[in-house]
Design goal:
The structure is a single chain. By secondary structure, the chain is α+β, with helices and mostly antiparallel strands. Helices cover about 20% and strands about 30% of the residues. The protein contains six helices and ten strands; from the N terminus they run βαββαβββαβββααβα. Strands 1, 2, 3, 4, 5, 6, 7, 8, 9 and 10 form a ten-stranded mixed beta sheet that branches. β8 (about 165-180) and β9 (about 180-190) form a beta hairpin. It starts with a strand and ends with a helix. About 40% of the residues are buried.
């Protein structure tokens, strides 16, 4: 058996998320169906992590094992002939047999996009949260620094979720501006359920003046979900980059 690594891009609008579920179409399910069509094998596909309903991916990493003799770089082309246009396999290659898309990952980066202005833009409607009034970006940039480092992010996890370990290490937390678009980029060694969307919701409330600049620090200290902001809508969120010891999707995308 060979292990094949793929990089997948998708718009999550029409899907219940990455993981196969009984309540609707999932990206993993459609990819496994495409693998069956290409290889004739019922193959389990393993992703670097789950994305929720409506969340997108610029660079999701996944792997599968196969006995098919097809050249590794041809899997991307073959799979795309069996996939809808909002899911594309951008890259495929043979991976070491001990590679695992989830457990080998060193860190992941997410990007949340906000579009500001009096009118919601048509081509951003599925990929950016629209705000009529622009938030105070300087306040949000200062507050975003409090996310950096190793913290217990219990306050930034959906209420009712049970997890034994809620400490995560964050190495990137910053806002950038591109015309009407604001991007929040956050990267770390792991994320709790809805953690990025709750961070964004809190930062936007800080930017709107509804919370003080110290709100992130205060929520981290208390560990109470009620001390953090609202959960930002899913459609503004994109899995942006996954990095491994010897493989980085940012470098792969530069070659395409």
């Amino acid at each position: 058996m060979r292990r094949i690594r793929i990089v997948v891009e998708y718009e999550g609008t029409n899907y219940v998320g990455w993981q196969t579920q009984p309540n609707g179409p999932a990206v993993q399910m459609l990819l496994e169906q495409a693998l069956l069509a290409v290889t004739g094998e019922r193959t389990a596909l393993h992703g670097s992590g789950r994305t929720d309903s409506g969340v997108h991916a610029r660079a999701q990493v996944a792997h599968f094992d196969t006995a098919a003799r097809m050249a590794a770089d041809k899997f991307a082309i073959a799979l795309n002939t069996h996939l809808p246009r909002d899911i594309r396999v951008l890259y495929s290659e043979e991976a070491p047999e001990d590679f695992h898309a989830r457990f080998s990952a060193k860190d992941k980066q997410y990007r949340y996009t906000v579009q500001t202005g009096p009118h919601a833009r048509v081509f951003a409607r599925n990929t950016a949260l629209h705000l009529h009034a622009a938030p105070d970006v300087a306040r949000m940039r200062r507050a975003a620094r409090d996310v950096l480092g190793e913290h217990d992010f219990r306050a930034f996890m959906s209420a009712g979720v049970q997890m034994e370990r809620t400490v995560r290490r964050i190495g990137l937390s910053e806002w950038t501006q591109e015309g009407e678009l604001l991007h929040y980029d956050v990267a770390g060694n792991g994320f709790l359920y809805n953690m990025v969307r709750i961070l964004v919701g809190t930062l936007l409330e800080i930017g709107a003046g509804r919370r003080g600049e110290g709100a992130i620090r205060e929520a981290l200290a208390s560990g109470r979900r009620s001390d953090a902001g609202a959960t930002a809508p899913a459609h503004g969120l994109t899995l942006y980059r996954v990095r491994y010891e010897d493989f980085d999707t940012a470098e792969v995308l530069k070659t395409l």
